[in-house]
Write a structure and sequence with these properties.
Elements (H helix, E strand, L loop, with lengths): L1 E6 L14 H4 L3 E4 L6 H9 L12 H8 L4 E9 L2 E6 L4 E4 L3 H12 L6 H10 L4 E11 L8 E2 L5 E9 L13 E8 L6 E6 L6 E8 L10 E7 L3 E4 L4 H8 L6 E4 L2 E5 L2 E2 L4 E2 L2 E5 L4 E9 H7 L12 E4 L2
Parallel strand pairs: 2-8
Antiparallel strand pairs: 1-9, 1-11, 3-4, 3-9, 4-5, 6-7, 6-8, 10-11, 12-19, 12-20, 13-18, 14-19, 15-18, 16-17
């Protein structure tokens, strides 16, 4: 197995849904950053280290699999120093990886009507990490050209605002010196290792990507599990009942209950096809899935759930009760 590490070098913009373009947003455009990068963004950055393959005729999710030669990504994890965190979009924080089991079991109890002290959840949130948001306002954004590129023109462009996410921020000035990485488990029989400078985080920003061989996964995986912590958005088509589709995919698990949020999520923009990728309904990171019957922990971690699971969407952490 392998691991992909993106070293954080500066504040990043991990785009939320919606256009950042005067042609669709009017004279004042803005963009905000999600807490963690979309799996399609990080998979795309990793794909640039491979040779060029024409994927213009392939569906967007299958195209990544072709370029990545069948490798599957599981993540993302945020590491600050020696501490790992996972995104919890439900509460708007990064939850400590060590707290995932306790947090998930607490949410399972709530799903079945058991009493849980509010203090317990506050402690999980308190131990988490909330990066600062940096707001930048500039002048110079113009509408897209026919080639779908945005143009900056300081004299005739329009006002725009960008909200970056700053992983290097903290309660202490010294936190800026803490080594911070965004990491993924990479499931592949053979992969080239090495270090690469890649684009990540929008607005021309970069990261140092390192791919290395490892002996274990980032999280501990139990042999069997009936609780799943959602690590990255689980995607299904719009217009269908989400829980019904989830039950069809996890048919061996029996009845399923969900704590969390389902949002509408765009999968990103296709530079090859010059158009936006489809819109999906997504169970967001930090949600918890409770299963009536246990499933194999390693299999559910490696396979993932839903659409785009090969490139990192639908990653879940199997949790012990």
């Amino acid at each position: 197995m392998y691991r992909a590490l993106f070293r954080v070098l500066e504040p990043y913009l991990f785009r939320g849904s919606g256009e950042f373009d005067p042609s669709t947003r009017g004279v004042y455009s803005s963009a905000y950053s999600l807490l963690a990068p979309s799996p399609s963004s990080t998979a795309g950055a990793i794909a640039t280290t491979f040779g060029y393959i024409d994927t213009s005729s392939a569906e967007w999710d299958y195209a990544y699999s072709i370029v990545l030669k069948g490798a599957k990504l599981r993540g993302p994890y945020l590491r600050r120093g020696s501490t790992y965190y996972v995104e919890n979009r439900v509460n708007g924080i990064f939850l400590r990886l060590d707290d995932v089991s306790g947090y998930s079991n607490m949410k399972r109890k709530q799903l079945y009507g058991e009493m849980v002290e509010e203090r317990e959840e506050r402690e999980f949130i308190k131990r988490g990490f909330t990066p600062k948001k940096l707001t930048f306002t500039g002048i110079g954004l113009k509408a897209r050209t026919e080639e779908m590129r945005k143009i900056a023109d300081e004299e005739r462009g329009l006002i725009y605002t960008v909200n970056f996410i700053d992983y290097l921020s903290g309660k202490d000035v010294k936190d800026v010196d803490i080594e911070t990485t965004i990491e993924f488990d990479v499931i592949s029989e053979k992969m080239e290792t090495g270090k690469y400078v890649v684009r990540l985080g929008g607005e021309g920003r970069t990261s140092l990507l390192e791919i290395l061989k490892v002996d274990s996964y980032i999280c501990r995986i139990p042999e069997r599990t009936n609780i799943l912590y959602v690590l990255s958005p689980i995607l299904y088509e719009t217009g269908i009942e989400f829980i019904k589709k989830l039950k069809e995919e996890l048919w061996e698990a029996g009845d399923i209950k969900i704590y969390g949020k389902i949002e509408i999520l765009g999968a990103g923009y296709s530079e090859v096809r010059k158009k936006r990728k489809p819109i999906y309904q997504a169970l967001v990171p930090g949600s918890v899935i409770s299963l009536e019957r246990s499933v194999e922990g390693r299999r559910i971690y490696e396979e993932g759930i839903g659409i785009g699971k090969e490139l990192g969407f639908g990653s879940v952490i199997p949790v012990e009760r």
